[in-house]
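Researcher: Good morning. I'm working through a list of sequences from a screen, and I'd like to move beyond sequence-only analysis. For each chain I'm collecting a predicted structure so we can compare shapes side by side. This is the next one on the list. No need for commentary yet; just the structure.
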Amino acid sequence: MAPIPVKPGKYKIHAHIIGPSSLLTATEYAVKYGAPVITDRLNPLPIEQEWIIDHAEAGQDAQPESPYVIHLAYHPAAGIVVPEDKVYVNSVPRSEWAQFTFERVIGGVKILSDKGLALRAGHRGAQIELVAPKPEFQETWTLEYVGPIETAE
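Model: Good morning. Structure tokens for this chain:
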């Protein structure tokens, strides 16, 4: 499938796994590469579950093949990184954040790294991994648009 454009903004990213609704969630503890990113039930506070999806290059126009970066909405310096094909969030320079594209699939979107690997949610609580893409529901995500990127004025 061809990459699709995504409106930059604040999102909740829903996993398609068996069980109660699960969202992409930053954990509260850091390890070697940062805080592991998992799926978890909806939290009452959005601080760990709302993400900004933005163009990799600031000011870039939306084009289907353009890469995007993902960072925590309430901690703009904490972006997604993917060492050893596992997903973490870490406060490193934006240039070190992982870049992604999105493809439409049945039931949602597939999130692909710049290496062509897909984000996969094994089960609730498991760390998100990057895998060779397959037509599996664990690699399908729903992007719930929450609002625009807030700018400090």
